Amino acid sequence: MTDEGGDKASALRAKVEKKLNAAKERLRGLEETVVDKSRAAARATDEYVHENPWQSIGVAAGVGAALGVVIGVLLSRR
Q1: DSSP 12-74
Q2: Which of 10, 11, 18, 32 is spaced 20 to 30 Å from 4 by Cα?
Q3: How many domains would you assign to the chain?
Q4: What's the predicted TM-score (pTM) here?
């Protein structure tokens, strides 16, 4: 009787470990994909900034100004 319970527990443990290993493998693949896409986006951004420096500065200034306005409004409500 006790061997039967131990066998079931071992089988369940093996099944869980197999599923866990499969999930880890999928996550590794997903991580590689995300890293590759991030590197590609960083390269594209770097190229764009080098080709269009003044437009990039203008966009950065606009985003900074917009964030400043939003933060100013939020702080003035307190």
Answers
A1: HHHHHHHHHHHHHHHHHHHHHHHHHHHHHHHHHHHHHHHH-HHHHHHHHHHHHHHHHHHHHHH
A2: 18
A3: 1
A4: 0.56
- CA 59-65-70 angle, 5° bins: 125
Per the CB < 8 A criterion, the answer to whether 73 and 65 are in contact is no
State pLDDT tens for residues 48-66.
Answer: 999 999 999 999 999 999 9
In which domain, by residue range, is 39 found?
A: 2-76
> ∠ CA(61), CA(63), CA(69), 5° rounding?
100
d(CA 59, CA 15): 53
Amino acid in position 11: A
